[in-house]
C-alpha cells in the first residue's frame, strides 16, 4: 500500500481552533510591492496568504519567497498536466514550503496519485494537496460543450470523491457545496472555501456568497477572502473585524 493511501486513511487534518488562523487572504495582484505591503500589514491578523497564478507568473518563485517571508503559504497554482509533469511541478513547488497546494481533480487519478507521491518524497513537511473540482465559472451549458456529464452539482461530487480516493487531502468548494461535500467525503477531508463575504462587504463578481461565520458553521475548514480585506482602505481593520464577527457568532470561536 502506497504512502498516499496511508496518509488518506489516517487523516492528516489538523485544523486550527482559532478563527483568524483559518483565513487565507487572496493576494490577487501581479504587483510585488503591493503584495508585500498587504502581507506585512496583515501579519498576525490572518492565517496565511494565497498566491495564485497572477502573482506567481508575474514574479516567479523568488517573488513568492520575497512576499511570503514566514507566512503560511497557500500556493494556488491549480496544476493540471500528465502525471510525470505534475509530479515534477509538485517537487519544484515544495521548495517554497507551501502549506496548501492546489491541482485539478480533472487531471485524473494517476495525476493526483503522482502528485501525492511527489509531495511525500520531499524532505520538508508535505503540503496539503487540495483539489479543484469544477471551476465555479462553468455552468451546465459549459459542461455540455465540454462533453462532461452534469448536472454541475453531481460533477463536483464525482470529482471530489475521485480526489479523496486518489489520496488528496481535500477540495476547494463554494460555500453552498460545503454540507454536501462534508457528508460525502467525511470529517477528515479538508474543505477550503472562497466566495466569502461579510455582510458589510460588496459581493463584486461573486454570485453565491456566504458570511465567514456561517461558512465555518456549515463545515468549512479554511476560508479564502480577498477583496473584503484587500479592497478596504484599512485591510488590517477589515481582517480583525471579520475575526471578531466569527468569534461573536453563535457557537463562535476565539
Ligand atoms: O476577492 P475575493 O474574496 O472574491 O477572492 C476570492 C479568491 O478565491 C480569488 O483568489 C479567487 O480566484 C478564488 N476563487 C474563487 N472561487 C473559486 C475558486 C477560487 O473565488 N471557485
Layout: helices, strands, pairs:
Layout: H1 3-10, E1 23-26, H2 32-42, E2 48-52, H3 53-68, E3 73-79, H4 83-93, E4 100-104, H5 109-121, E5 128-132, H6 140-145, H7 152-165, E6 170-172, H8 178-185, E7 190-193, H9 212-218, E8 222-225, H10 227-230, H11 235-248
Parallel strand pairs: 1-2, 1-8, 2-3, 3-4, 4-5, 5-6, 6-7, 7-8
Can you tell me about this structure?
The structure is a single chain. The chain is of the alpha/beta class. The chain has one domain (16-245): TIM Barrel, CATH 3.20.20.70. Helix content is 44%, strand content 15%. It has 11 helices and 8 strands. The protein has helices at 3-10, 32-42, 53-68, 83-93, 109-121, 140-145, 152-165, 178-185, 212-218, 227-230, 235-248; strands at residues 23-26, 48-52, 73-79, 100-104, 128-132, 170-172, 190-193, 222-225. An 8-stranded parallel beta barrel has the order 1-2-3-4-5-6-7-8, surrounded by 6 helices. Strand 4 (100-104), helix 5 (109-121) and strand 5 (128-132) form a beta-alpha-beta unit. Helix 9 (212-218) packs across helix 11. The longest helix is centred in the N-terminal third of the chain and has 16 residues, at 53-68. The protein is globular. The relative contact order is 0.15. The model is unreliable at 1-11 (pLDDT under 50). Bound molecules: cytidine-5'-monophosphate (C5P). Cytidine-5'-monophosphate binds at residues 26, 28, 52, 136, 172, 174, 194-195, 204, 206, 224-228.
Amino acid at each position: 500500500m502506497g504512502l498516499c493511501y496511508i496518509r488518506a486513511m489516517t487523516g492528516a487534518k489538523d485544523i486550527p481552533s482559532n478563527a483568524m488562523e483559518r483565513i487565507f487572504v487572496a493576494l490577487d495582484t501581479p504587483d510585488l510591492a503591493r503584495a508585500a505591503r498587504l502581507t506585512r500589514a496583515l501579519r498576525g491578523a490572518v492565517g496565511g496568504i494565497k498566491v495564485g497564478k497572477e502573482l506567481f507568473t508575474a514574479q516567479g518563485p523568488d517573488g513568492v519567497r520575497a512576499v511570503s517571508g514566514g507566512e503560511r503559504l497557500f500556493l494556488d497554482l491549480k496544476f493540471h498536466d500528465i502525471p510525470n509533469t505534475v509530479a515534477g511541478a509538485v517537487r519544484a513547488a515544495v521548495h517554497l514550503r507551501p502549506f496548501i497546494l492546489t491541482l485539478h481533480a480533472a487531471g485524473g487519478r494517476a495525476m493526483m496519485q503522482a502528485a501525492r507521491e511527489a509531495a511525500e518524497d520531499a524532505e520538508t513537511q508535505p503540503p496539503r494537496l487540495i483539489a479543484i473540482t469544477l471551476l465555479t465559472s462553468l455552468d451546465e451549458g459549459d459542461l455540455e460543450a465540454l462533453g462532461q456529464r452534469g448536472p454541475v452539482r453531481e460533477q463536483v461530487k464525482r470529482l471530489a470523491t475521485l480526489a479523496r480516493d486518489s489520496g488528496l487531502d481535500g477540495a476547494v468548494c463554494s460555500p453552498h457545496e460545503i454540507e454536501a461535500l462534508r457528508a460525502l467525503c467525511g470529517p477528515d477531508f479538508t474543505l477550503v472555501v472562497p466566495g466569502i463575504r461579510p455582510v458589510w462587504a460588496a459581493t463584486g463578481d461573486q454570485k453565491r456568497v456566504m458570511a465567514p461565520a456561517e461558512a465555518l458553521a456549515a463545515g468549512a475548514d479554511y476560508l479564502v477572502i480577498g477583496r473584503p480585506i484587500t479592497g478596504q482602505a484599512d485591510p488590517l481593520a477589515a481582517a480583525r473585524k471579520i475575526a471578531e464577527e466569527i468569534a461573536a457568532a453563535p457557537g463562535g470561536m476565539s
